[in-house]
Design goal:
The chain is mainly β. Helices cover 15% and strands 43% of the residues. The chain starts with a helix and ends with a strand.
Length: 109
């Protein structure tokens, strides 16, 4: 119960801050994700791209990561190759109190 209260408190704080726990830069055939603040990429969660045409790609196996300065064991940035298709990129970011599953729609040409 205490853990749930801590997670809810962290989530409410996150929502109140209005700053996303990551920034995303999408190019023609890549996506760069950089975490903000106390967040890092969740190494235990799959990273995949599901195209609107139904194709699903495991992005994690080929992405390049950079460690966090505050904790080199964690990843704070990643460069991912994704096809030039519309779809959804799924990944997770965590702080010490909460993990968020992110599903980011990408509209491509």
């Amino acid at each position: 119960m205490r853990r749930q209260v801590r997670q809810l408190s962290a989530l409410l704080l996150l929502l109140a801050c209005a700053r996303a726990p990551y920034t995303l830069d999408a190019g023609v055939d890549f996506v760069d994700v950089t975490t903000n603040g106390a967040f890092h990429l969740n190494a235990d969660y799959p990273v995949n791209f599901k195209a609107d045409d139904g194709e699903r790609i495991d992005v994690k196996s080929s992405m390049t990561t950079l460690p966090c300065q505050s904790d080199p064991e964690q990843w704070c940035a990643a460069h991912m190759s994704v096809p030039n298709k519309a779809g959804v990129l799924a990944f997770s970011v965590c702080s010490k109190d909460v993990c968020n599953i992110e599903k980011v729609p990408l509209s491509r040409r």
